[in-house]
Amino acid sequence: MKNSAKPILEVKNLVKKFGDFTAVDGISFEIKEGEILGFLGPNGAGKSTTINCILGVVEKDGGEIKIFDKNLSSANRTQIMADVNYCSAEYTLPWNLKIEECLLVYAKLYGVKDVKKRIEEVLDLLELGDLRKKFIRDLSFGQRTRANLCKALLNRPRLLLLDEPMASMDPDVVDRGIKLIKKIQKDDGISILYTSHNMWEIEQVAGNVVFVNHGKVMAQGSPLDLTRQELELEAKEPNLREVFIQLSRKSVSGEENEG
Ligand SMILES: Nc1ncnc2c1ncn2[C@@H]1O[C@H](COP(=O)(O)OP(=O)(O)O)[C@@H](O)[C@H]1O
Ligand SMILES: [Mg+2]
Asked: What residues pack around ion ligand 2 (CB closer than 5 A)?
């Protein structure tokens, strides 16, 4: 990825409140074309809420979201979302449908043109061709992750939001998933916002990382820069796990929190 690459997603001073509680408190970051940005933070930090605002499924209370250089307003949301997709282990496809039925439904919803061809392509890519007649309810965790990714790639998105796509998957599934995501990024130049609590996963895929807590950005940079900034100036290798622990224990003002 070149430094001159243009931003695909720009989030500026994003604010989201639920009643009196401010879940997202002025978050800003951007993703350049072809970049995978790790989006990290403890449970409740405001990551999913941020993603929901980017998807426009939750209405923001302040700030600006630009996707493909366009403001995400209700007027152009449909046009923008045609090139965006989302995947999370938290949401599964309809249990009573077979994989290929699900893909057909979503392809129709997305207005995919060459439906049959595209379904074959994503099934092939995710190595799910042989399982196409299986019901979602009968799939293993790993197979379900791949089916979710199939759905998320159907519309050939330019921006992919992955909110813990491989949560509670075994290391083999995660390893395969990562290889695949890297391949998609390389072949199609997709920009990806990638949330995970598995720091190894993030170190494998993300060029840069944004760390949030209490709805605010606490730090951002490459995994190695963050390691040097938070742990050890001379570090040679990234250690996001320790960085995560350090940053999670800091309050927003920079003081250490008691457990
Ligand atoms: N619909 C909602 N109503 C009230 N509070 C919410 C809602 N969604 C999220 N929250 C709260 O906002 C905070 C951030 O949640 P979330 O964005 O899901 O965090 P993360 O994804 O980083 O774990 C949490 O304290 C959560 O309880
Ligand atoms: Mg979340």
From this structure: 47-48
Ligand nearest 40 Cα, by number? 1
Q: Quote the tokens at residue 126.
A: 């995710």
For the domain spanning 1-83+158-259, the CATH number is 3.40.50.300
Instruction: Indicate the domain borders of the chain.
Output: 1-83+158-259, 89-156
Q: How far is the CA of 12 from the centre of ligand 1 (A)?
A: 19
Q: What is the pLDDT of residue 197?
A: 93
Question: What number does the ligand 1 atom closest to the CA of 52 have?
Answer: 17
Which amino acid is residue 143, in one-letter code? Answer: Q
- Amino acid letter for position 71: N
User: Which regions in the chain score pLDDT beneath 70?
Assistant: 1-4, 251-259
* pLDDT for position 254: 55
Work out whether the CA dihedral 221, 225, 231, 237 comes out positive or negative. Answer: positive
